[in-house]
Design brief:
The complex is a heterodimer of chains A (586) and B (288).
Chain A: H1 10-37, E1 45-50, H2 57-72, E2 76-81, H3 84-94, E3 99-104, H4 112-117, H5 136-147, H6 152-166, E4 169-182, H7 194-202, E5 213-218, H8 239-243, E6 248-251, E7 254-257, E8 260-267, E9 271-277, H9 291-302, H10 319-322, E10 327-330, E11 335-340, H11 345-348, H12 359-362, E12 368-370, E13 373-374, H13 375-378, E14 390-397, E15 400-405, H14 410-413, E16 430-435, H15 438-446, E17 452-453, H16 462-467, E18 471-486, H17 496-504, H18 508-515, E19 520-522, H19 526-530, H20 541-545, E20 555-556, E21 559-560, H21 562-571, E22 576-577, E23 580-581
Parallel strand pairs in A: 1-2, 1-3, 5-16, 5-17
Antiparallel strand pairs in A: 3-18, 4-18, 4-19, 6-7, 8-9, 9-11, 10-11, 12-13, 14-15, 15-16, 20-21, 22-23
Chain B: H1 2-26, H2 28-36, H3 38-44, H4 46-61, H5 63-74, H6 79-89, H7 92-98, H8 102-128, H9 134-156, H10 162-165, H11 173-177, H12 181-188, H13 198-212, H14 220-237, H15 243-262, H16 265-280
Helix pairs in contact in B: 1-2, 1-8, 4-9, 8-9, 8-13, 8-14, 9-13, 9-15, 13-14, 13-15
The chains are: A alpha+beta (586), B mainly alpha (288).
């Protein structure tokens, strides 16, 4: 018979098919259920905040390169430009960021790390622990180095090693100050700090002229706010320090008595310093500057609410320096005795570099205007009363601010004055002209409308100044640096290992030569990576020998290699799925 | 000082362009007629002009408030999205900048500043010289809509242009080639206001209206078209705007022209009055 019959009936086929479908569906359902029940790890995302190129070309470029390199490593990275004033608000006041790229004016002393990193400042504003770091090892080391007299270098070295491993932030490069100046002008250094201006004005080769020195700079809203203790605004570097004098200025590493005539130290159980003020000191409004103002300043910086708010509202600037001081006792009108809690002299003298504020002006600014914010922090202080060598002349606009000589200043008349003032002053004050962008100030310089630019000229303009007639270029290495800061409250950036790998993802050598056109020095030593250009206290070879792994860039010519960078994250036990870096938990 | 110089130069160049275009496109006959009847012409479009002035004054007087609202309260920073859109598409800004030559840069700088100013001012002269003032009223209302809607967007969104995000990838050609122009653009606008591009929207508005009035000024259509497209391209070539800003600007132009053509200020005012009256007006006591 040739009738073999159908090998499978329709019914069988249907049954088989439905069974197969059911089991397939069951598998599918199971997967759906398990996906619904357990959320798998998602891609790590990070937002890099920095200023727009209008405010800082270099920061914008570094952030942009960083974003590309993070993406190569499989991170969902976004680059969010944000106006300078707002960046400082977000980063320094609100802590609302993942990663930021910013220019830091430089650390004046190793103890400056105290303000930058101590966990007691975790909820405070300003450059006080903007990383929201809470690390007991760091806290201990910061406290020990303050009081250490003999082995301070060892303490600092330990701290440095710890900071290299945990990397709350990392330094990219140290910038050179760069300015253009009229050829006939003798410019010792590009002006940035108050002493740079003083030196320039004192040069006898700039023989006396009865007009102000014309200085060009650029930026947004530079004249809007002249508050010496606020941080939420962009400011003209050095300007406020020319208006407000401290007891002593740090010049070339030395502490030069300024408002102070003399300081005598007394090392008993507690370190104490008796400060005698110069004779005949006055404020710009002709009221006399006395010991009460000094005592008031330290108290006010510690609590601008003058005791009305529980816990106080400290000024967001000079916090670490103010915290060195335990109390200030007024002797007579010209003497104060400053007491320090367990602190070495070397560190304690930093406290004398804060600007002294007039009590009769600032005492009235202690009212609370908003949540933990006092009038003192909110005020624009547009009519600043200081005691500096200059005061603000009446004519102030968005594009110009003029400082006129304060003729009653003691240091203008006395013979017993700091060396830096020898020959001061060959000009009648200083006039800052503010252009919308650096190109416009270079043009103004070439056209002879200004004498020089401030020391903040971007390196891209170095060439056009060199080529122009009648102008010269002046540059000088500085302590200012570009840094990458991490929010240690971020789910992943809270892990030191992640911060360390992230810090490797920028080619510092490449940045210094390409972005900065060579007007910068890449951070290469351990000390440089945490913010100290000259590693004077970094003598131990142990530290030097451990070639910082932060410098091993996984790529070439600035661009990170996806394979190499992913290997770094895999090495710290992170996983990838479809070339996407996954969160550690989830 | 720098600003005054820039303004003076701008005034001279644009005036020369306006005189030439007026003679060629509008023609002496119409000019003479317009000069004779300038009084009634002005009176006819007083209301739309008043509306424009009100919006401009509002923009100017609320600068500080808008800035604080935009940057501190709303804080909608859409720059990363604009950048991502540009990248996902075909990187129009990068492509345009890759054609960079000195001549092309000069051309686009010229178009961006002088061409744009000319493009905005000339239609006022041209429509003023017509027999009816309908076109002029339409133009003024369309401009008003541009500024008013633009202001809303600028308050809602913080957006930085390409040159501000990545100076290595996108060159800020305008300020490299012509730094003083910064004094001018700084006065008029802020660098956080790039979405949408008002340069594009106003230029396109002029071009679309030129098409609407093509029977009156046929020559003006190609001239304004070439200029408007050049302005839109220049904003990207110079690294000031993203492609998204230009698209949004063009859409804004379409909306504004629609408003300008279909509505009148009188109509809008009457409509608003009616609504207010029906909502707030006391119902007459005696129903009868």
């Amino acid at each position: 018979m040739d009738d073999v019959g159908p090998p499978t009936t329709r019914r069988q086929l249907l049954a088989g098919a439905s069974a197969g479908a059911a089991s397939a569906l069951a598998g599918c359902w199971e997967r759906l259920w398990s996906e619904a029940e357990t959320t798998g790890p998602e891609q790590i995302s990070m937002t890099i905040k920095t200023v727009p190129a209008d405010d800082d070309e270099l920061a914008a470029t570094i952030a942009s390169q960083l974003r590309e390199n993070y993406e190569a490593a499989g991170i969902d990275a976004t680059h969010e430009p944000i106006a300078e004033a707002e960046l400082y608000r977000d980063v320094l006041l609100e802590g609302d960021y993942d990663v930021f790229v910013a220019r830091h004016p430089g650390l004046d002393e190793a103890d400056a790390l105290y303000g930058l990193l101590h966990s007691r400042y975790v909820s405070e504003h300003g450059w006080q622990n903007p990383f929201q770091l809470t690390d007991v090892v760091v806290d201990d080391a910061l406290e020990t180095q303050r009081s250490a007299t003999v082995d301070r270098d060892d303490d600092l070295e330990e701290l440095l090693e710890h900071l290299l491993t945990t990397t709350p932030y990392t330094v990219v490069a140290y910038t050179d100050a760069l300015c253009g100046a009229a050829e006939e002008l003798d410019v010792p250094v590009p002006p940035k700090r108050p002493q740079d201006y003083v030196r320039l004005l004192a040069r006898s080769s700039n023989d006396s002229r009865d007009r102000p020195l014309e200085v060009g700079t650029y930026g947004e809203g530079l004249t809007e706010r002249l508050n010496p203790i606020a941080v939420d605004r962009s400011r003209l570097e050095g300007l406020v320090d020319l208006l407000y004098d401290p007891l002593a200025r740090q010049i070339d590493g030395d502490y030069v008595p300024w408002l102070a005539d003399d300081v005598t130290w007394e090392e008993g159980r507690r370190l104490r310093a008796e400060v005698t003020l110069r004779e005949g000191l006055t404020w710009h409004d002709d009221k006399s500057l006395d010991a009460d103002d000094v005592a008031f300043t330290y108290e006010f910086l510690g609590d601008t609410s003058m005791g009305t708010v529980d816990g106080g509202v400290p000024a967001p600037r000079f916090r670490d320096r103010q915290s060195l001081v335990e109390s200030v006792d007024v002797g007579d009108s010209r003497t104060v005795t400053v007491s320090f809690p367990e602190t070495s002299r070397e560190v304690a003298r930093r406290a004398f570099t804060v600007p002294i504020l007039p009590e009769h002006v600032w005492a009235d600014r202690s009212d609370v205007v908003a949540n933990r914010r006092t009038e003192a922090l909110a005020t624009d202080n547009d009519d600043p009363v200081g005691s500096g060598l200059f005061r603000v002349a009446d004519v102030t606009t968005d594009v110009e601010i003029e400082l006129e000589p304060f003729d009653d200043h003691v240091l203008r008349t006395t013979t017993d004055r700091p060396d830096v003032l020898e020959g001061f002053s060959q000009f009648e004050g200083i006039r800052f002209q503010i252009a919308p962008n650096p190109g416009a100030i270079v043009d103004a310089l070439v056209d002879g409308e200004i004498d020089l630019t401030t020391g903040e000229l971007p390196p891209t303009y170095a060439e056009s100044i060199r080529e122009a007639d009648g102008v010269t270029r002046v540059s000088e290495p500085t302590d200012a640096f570009y840094m990458i800061g991490y929010n240690s409250q971020h789910a992943e950036l809270g892990h030191p290992h992640v911060r360390r790998v992230c810090s490797q993802l920028l080619d510092r050598e490449h940045a210094a030569t390409e972005f900065f056109d060579g007007f910068a020095e890449p951070a290469t030593t351990p000390a440089q990576l945490v913010g100290f250009r000259d590693d004077a206290w970094d003598r131990d070879d142990d530290v030097d020998d451990t070639e910082p792994e932060l410098l091993e860039f996984p790529g070439s010519d600035g661009a990170a290699d996806p394979g190499q960078s992913r290997a770094l994250f895999r090495a710290i036990h992170y996983n990838y799925e479809d070339d996407v870096l996954l969160e550690s938990s989830g | 000082m720098a600003l005054a110089d820039v303004l003076l130069e701008l005034a001279f160049v644009v005036a020369a362009m306006l005189v030439t275009a007026t003679l060629v496109i509008v023609g002496p006959r119409r000019i003479v007629a317009a000069a004779r009847g300038f009084r009634w012409r002005l009176e006819t479009c007083l209301l739309p002009f008043a509306a424009l002035v009100v919006v401009l004054l509002l923009r100017w007087s609320t600068q500080d408030i808008v800035r604080r609202l935009e940057r501190r309260v709303l804080q909608n920073n859409i720059t990363p999205q604009l950048f991502a859109f540009d990248q996902a598409l075909f990187e129009p800004v990068t492509i345009l900048q890759s054609f960079q030559t000195e001549a092309l840069t000069s051309f686009f700088v010229f178009v961006y500043i002088y061409g744009y100013a000319f493009l905005l001012i000339f239609p006022f002269i041209a429509y003023f010289a017509l027999e009816e003032m309908d076109e002029l009223s339409t133009l003024v209302l369309a401009f008003t809509a541009n500024y008013a809607i633009g202001l809303i967007f600028y308050t809602l969104f913080i957006a930085f242009g390409p040159r501000n995000v990545d100076p290595m990838a996108f060159e800020g050609l305008l300020y490299d080639a012509f730094p003083q122009s910064g004094a001018l653009t700084h006065e008029v606008n802020q660098n956080t206001n790039v979405f949408p591009s008002l340069h594009t929207s106003l230029s396109m508005t002029v071009f679309f209206l030129a098409w609407v009035t093509r029977t009156k000024y046929p020559v003006w259509v190609p001239v304004s078209g070439v200029l408007a497209v050049s302005v839109a391209l220049s904003t990207m070539y110079l690294g000031i705007h993203w492609f998204s800003d230009v698209i949004a600007g063009t859409l804004l132009a379409i909306v504004s022209v629609y408003i300008g053509v279909n509505y009148t200020v009188e109509g809008i005012v009457a409509g608003v009055r009616e609504v207010v009256a029906s909502r707030l007006g006391p119902p007459s006591a005696d129903g009868e």
